[in-house]
Design brief:
The complex is a heterotetramer, with 2 copies of chain A and 2 copies of chain B. By secondary structure, chain A is an alpha/beta fold. Chain A is built from 12 helices and 13 strands. In chain A, a hairpin with a 4-residue loop joins β6 and β7. In chain A, α1 runs antiparallel to α10 and α4 crosses α11. The longest helix of chain A is centred in the N-terminal third of the chain and has 26 residues. Chain B has 12 helices and 14 strands. In chain B, α3 packs parallel to α4 and α8 crosses α12. In chain B, the strands form 3 sheets. Chain B has a 7-stranded mixed sheet, sandwiched between helices. Chain B is α/β, with parallel strands linked by helices. The chains are: A alpha/beta, B alpha/beta. Chains B and D meet through α4, α6 and α10 of B and α4, α6 and α10 of D. The complex binds thiamine diphosphate (TPP) (2 copies) and magnesium ion (2 copies). One magnesium ion binds next to β10 of chain C. One thiamine diphosphate sits at the interface of chains C and B.
């Protein structure tokens, strides 16, 4: 069980559009280390992918997560293994935070048979039945109703099947661009009506490929759009892992207890282009610089040092430890077998139901038909 | 017992919900209202509002929700109040219904049934007279099934619910009130087998859904003219039961494909191509298609009738084909 | 030009869910008569359709408008002929208010060649190019982006083509059920971003077939959903034609002046079942009774009498005059020819562009390519 | 001048926008970003943000908006950043793009072009490798056009923009950088005419889009083996140019249909059915289809390759067909 965490007093943080009052959770050293390592894993993993992409080992459209690590770590590290995460095409780091191994994610990026989706999905389609990661969706907003569905199943299992004591929570990630898609509001409404255990997390990184949030969105405060659909909403500094963790913990707890959905708008930034194919020509250097200065990993490292949780040396050690995990994932992916071309049709269909077997009806059942 | 088609579908749904608590119904007005064609009538009293879920009018969302829930172990039956409305859910049906299992490398199954009324009814106009089987045929990973009688509707729907693949189950608006004697006790029927609706030896009429009845009527008229037509109801549009088709063609050596969807991009084109590819040796006439015209279904009654295939069209074409033996429009020997 | 109208002081009205402060416009006698006649036309026309439906002259799904007349009249009678109206399947009365003749609408319901859509569309698909009525749409919410499009074209013609001095305004009608569909919020956002000349009118009649608004909607106040998408919103008593006219006039004026969209939520009720095929078993008699007591036509008749604009006798005369129009429409429809079956394919495609003609380039044009 | 396909499309768009102020572009990142494949690059400088409209990510809405605008006199070009994304807009494309003119009794025309990249690229995974031509083929009222070279891309796009019917214009991701010498001065090309990409007399390869190049390569290889294959690029998938097909078949008497969409519900089935119906007398072999497998396109390179038709597949099939003359799989004479 996670160690007790309390919430610190409000702290003023500069954000890109207003001064944000954010509470942070107070974590102990072990939790802090876990959070730090998870963020570093995310960062190093993505940097490695970029290398492998330019070497031609990884292909397709590849969207990296650099800069947004505090959101993935801050939210997903509040979850239980049986909780669900639903992501977009920018999904590798969410997958790692959820506990999927670097090996299976990297191997998927390589398209290998050992990848989580056996090489069928690739970068934009990470899935894991073991880790309730559903999934990796390439189309904007299509993951939101899917997430509503896993949340619905949790509530259903408790209320209509009695097979679950308490509810698994679903965290659904989406971007600022996706937040203009109407499906989100359909899902808000339904989640609220049924008090489903779901947390919507908008990672507002100000850009949707080349479309700046301000140009695409009449009212840029996304968190204002939850309440008219019955979804309590909160804005948070997405560059501060403890601030994210604070709001996520509350939202997850509330969801699990059957008190319904929450929308978290996390203000963040991607440090790289939209995808590895994006020339990234539209974002101003000044803007990028301002956000780079707020690197969530660096900042959290400083915080840990200030709190006496770490030293430069231990942080370096942590990074080295992670580097090995990442290197190992590459080695694993490199040495893994390709899927067999003759198996290309595997997984399209599953076994058919065999009809016509005599129905096994109890005599009680039979009486019903009499 | 005598049951209409909508009653048979109701029985199937209720039985499967009784049998497996993971089976639930999702859609517009399926609960309190009982479904626009009464297939889920009163089920909410028996199984609760949660298992018979009335949704807002958000086809893409509730379809996606059902698919997500199926990944998490439920077996939702999605009702399209009219199948046409599910055009709004096309993305969820194709990308996630059809492809999610594959994309995830087989990790997640999508045991949903997507069912509801479709086809050309009585003057419902262009948007309410759609034949989505033609729009969805190319989506990989889906099974397309079309019942045509109360008997097969019940058995097929039960199998569809138990199948672990996504099944799109097309009911025809004009068949809901068709009555028939069906067994009291539950039964299941295979999703992928065609049915011989009427055996015959002279020519095979390959059809599905309401056209089964059109063809049967035509066959009855033909019988009076001494022509013995076999009516083969495909039942499964995807995959097509080529084994049954071949068997029939080995007997009749001739076929006409009769469909309600329009000709271009229709089911008939697929059947025709597959018949040519696998049964050419069994044929001594070129197969022929009778389809609806490539026109949005008009509201006016006369125009609507002009769009679809009627029994007399089938009769005429059969007579023509039987008479043309040795005629010109035949594949020449190389 | 419409006579001057002023806005009356606030008046308290009972509504189904809260006490609504509504302003009414002050109209002169001529305008009052025009509004009254338009509402009566809507009512009598629908009642006639019901008769013809039960006689088997009109077929398909037929959705009547009884009870909601104050909305159609209140909004559409503020429009100019070049303004656009976009409606749903419950479209006959909107079409009439927009100036389409009872003859062409009735003939369409009969499926005759003289119908506005030449019998191709039917009840749910009224269209008129002459009256900028686009259209009759059978699918929930699909008319909303179409309406956005006509509004976009108005703004585009003024700003990018310079072919219009001022902008045509588009009024887009939808129901409470439709308001849960996300497309509405996509359109809100875009209309607001571009300050398009559009007025969204939600006719909240509390029911979507058998789904009560309260069961389908987490936050039942639809007008609360405009502002987070940049659309100023107002709630109005949809049973009071002058109240509707007051808000509509303002919204239309604002739209025309390039000051952007408005959402009007009109609280109203349908006096009949959802369609003529609907047994209407779920709505409580008490609820129906409460709303029937607020019949917009009766109420407005009383108001006119109070203001000295009409007497029982003149109201009866008006009704009689309208009855003749409606009867005439039936006669016209009955005696009109059916479309010819051989013309069934007419109107699917229009003439193809004939490619390959030599391009007529001026020498100036040619210089560009040099 | 030498131009790539994306440049040719850019020229066509710019020229038409210059020529007619009612022509505008609508889509995601078409403005400041210049389009995901640079087809609309810098046009916003020339024509302003309103005529080159960057939209939020709302496919159904911006497609519907463009259709509505077209009813009011504009001529919008809708860019799907990837055609697959327009699955989200399926309802607007089919009900309103395809059917609105008919439903309104011819009162409103819908002169929109819906264009963008599609097809199987390089390891883009199941969702980004879709072939919507198969999904949209059955929708009445649409024209489906697929350019295959810079030359025809420019002329066809210009015609599509000027046509008063809705045209879905499918570009292939892998062809954008194809280079070719094209005329300096503007020209238009007919939307409904097939192109003989390579004349030949022994067999006709009926294909479209990228498969034109696959077939041409196959034909070159076949030439070395003494087989003279004609490559017929359909260009228009709907309607199909049966006149050109028939002319070709009257010469070659044999054909293979090569497509990138998957076999079931594909374009090939339609072509095959129509060829059988109208050209059977011209054939001395049964037509054959080479299609992608009925599988969502996998990410892995080897699997992806295993899904599509390659030049060697075409070569093999042609050789097989040429050799099998008098073989068994032939329609027997009655
Ligand atoms: C339905 C659909 N439309 C368009 C796209 C193309 N696309 C991919 S990412 C993207 C921008 C998304 O921006 P945002 O939601 O802010 O997420 P971010 O990339 O910033 O994480 C777009 C338009 C898509 N994948 N799916
Ligand atoms: C996309 C779509 N889904 C479902 C329907 C079926 N349907 C027709 S009307 C209706 C209820 C609409 O209610 P509301 O929007 O409140 O309008 P009202 O009928 O009350 O005027 C439904 C669900 C439809 N026509 N289109
Ligand atoms: Mg973003
Ligand atoms: Mg309503």
């Amino acid at each position: 069980p996670a160690p007790m965490e309390t919430v610190e007093s409000a702290e003023l943080l500069a954000s890109k559009r207003n001064v944000l009052r954010t509470r942070r959770v107070n974590v102990d050293q072990k939790v802090a280390q876990m959070l730090y390592e998870d963020m570093v894993l995310g960062r190093q993993f993505e940097d490695m992918i970029a290398q492998m992409y330019y070497k031609g080992r990884v292909a397709g459209f590849v969207h990296l997560y650099n800069g947004q690590e505090a959101v993935s770590t801050g939210v997903i590290k509040c979850l239980r293994p049986d909780d669900y995460v639903s992501s977009t095409y920018r999904d590798h780091v969410h997958a790692l935070s959820k506990g999927m191994s670097a090996r299976e994610v990297m191997a998927e990026l390589y398209g290998k048979e050992t990848g989580c989706c056996k090489g069928r999905g690739g970068s934009m389609h990470m899935f894991s039945a073991e880790h309730n990661f559903v999934g990796g969706f390439a189309f904007i907003s299509e993951n939101i109703p899917i997430a509503l569905g896993t949340a619905f199943a949790s509530a259903y299992k408790r209320d209509s099947m009695g097979t679950a004591k308490d509810m698994s929570v679903t965290c659904c990630f989406l971007g600022d661009g996706a937040s203009n898609n109407g499906i989100l509001y359909e899902c808000f409404n339904m989640a609220s009506l049924m008090k489903l255990p779901i947390v919507f997390v908008v990672e507002n990184n100000s850009w949707a490929i080349g479309m700046s949030h301000i140009r695409s969105t009449a009212v840029p405060e996304i968190y204002k759009r939850g309440p008219p659909f019955g979804v309590p909403s909160v804005e948070v500094d997405g560059m501060d892992v403890l601030a994210v963790r604070a709001v996520a913990r509350e939202a997850v707890k509330k969801a699990r207890e059957g008190r319904g959905p929450t929308l978290i708008e996390a203000l963040t930034y991607r440090f790289r282009g939209h995808s590895l194919a994006d020339p990234d020509e539209l974002r101003a250097p000044l803007e990028k610089g301002a956000w780079l200065a707020r690197d969530p990993i660096e900042r959290f490292g400083e915080y840990m040092k200030k709190r006496g949780f770490a030293s430069d040396y231990t942080l370096k050690l942590a990074k080295k430890k992670i580097r090995e995990i990442v290197n190992d994932s590459v080695k694993f992916a490199e040495s893994s077998p390709e899927p067999k071309p003759e198996d290309v049709g595997k997984y399209v269909m599953t076994d058919d139901f065999q009809a016509g077997q005599p129905e096994n009806l109890s005599s009680e059942d039979l009486r019903k038909y009499a | 017992v005598e049951r209409t088609m909508f009653q048979a579908l109701h029985m199937a749904t209720a039985e499967e919900m009784e049998r497996d608590p993971a089976v639930c119904v999702v859609g517009e007005d399926v609960g309190h209202y009982g479904g626009s064609y009464k297939v889920t009538q009163q089920l909410h009293y028996r199984f609760g509002n949660f298992r018979v879920l009335d949704t807002p009018i958000v086809e893409n969302t509730f379809t996606g929700m059902a698919i997500g829930a199926s990944c998490a172990g439920l077996r939702p039956v999605i009702e399209g109040m009219n199948m046409g409305f599910l055009l709004m859910a096309y993305n969820q049906i194709s990308n996630n219904g059809g492809m999610l299992r594959y994309t995830s490398g087989g990790q997640f199954e999508v045991p949903v049934v997507i069912r509801g009324p479709g086809g050309i009814g009585k003057q419902l106009g262009p948007e309410h007279s759609q034949r989505l089987e033609a729009y969805l045929n190319a989506v990989p990973g889906l099974k397309l099934v079309m019942p045509s009688t109360p008997y097969n509707a019940r058995g097929l729907l039960k199998s569809a619910i138990r199948d672990n693949n996504p099944v799109v189950f097309f009911e025809h608006v004009l068949l809901y009130n068709l009555k028939e004697e069906i067994p009291l006790l539950p039964y299941t029927l295979p999703l992928d087998k065609a049915e011989i609706a009427r055996p015959g030896k002279d020519i095979t009429l390959i059809c599905y859904s309401r056209q089964r009845h059109v063809c049967t009527e035509a066959a009855n008229r033909l019988a009076k003219m001494g022509i013995d037509a076999e009516v083969l109801d495909l039942i499964s549009l995807k995959p097509i039961d080529l084994v049954s088709i071949k068997k029939s063609l080995q007997k009749t050596h001739k076929c006409i494909i009769v469909e309600e969807c329009s000709k271009t991009g229709g089911i008939g084109a697929d059947v025709m191509a597959q018949v040519i590819e696998t049964c050419a040796n069994d044929l001594d006439e070129l197969p022929m298609r009778l389809s609806s015209k490539d026109i949005p279904t008009p509201y006016n009654r006369l125009l609507e009738e002009a769009v679809v295939v009627k029994p007399e069209d089938v009769v005429n074409s059969v007579v023509w084909m039987m008479a043309s033996r040795g005629g010109v429009n035949v594949m020449p020997k190389p």
